Amino acid sequence: MKKNIDAYIVRSEQKVWTALVEEGIHYKGVFVKSLRFDKEKQRSTTILLKFEPGSSYPYHNHPAGEEIFVLQGSCEIEGSLLEEGDYLFTPPNSKHAVKSESGCTLLLVIPEEVEKL
Hints:
- By secondary structure, the protein is mostly beta strands.
- The chain has no helices and 10 strands.
- The protein has strands at 18-22, 25-38, 43-51, 55-62, 66-77, 80-83, 87-90, 94-100, 104-109, 115-116.
- It is globular.
């Protein structure tokens, strides 16, 4: 018997980019699409982030780690350049900022909320 997985498919192209606003702070030039919303945690755990050229996200901690895959463009994290096709796993309690001079689109898996530092 075939399983119906349609309820679990997210058509990201049908979702709208929204400005990233957290705790009332608007991160200019950074946009988000939620791919997986965890009802128990009441937050998105898998997202797409789009950085316009010259935009950034401030220094922060990942209590449960993070996974990043660069879908398009490039960004800099802790002095290292990540380009299209690159993958980064940051272990729990990793701290960094993100900036993109040229713009980029990232796939992120974030098991727990980040802590701004």
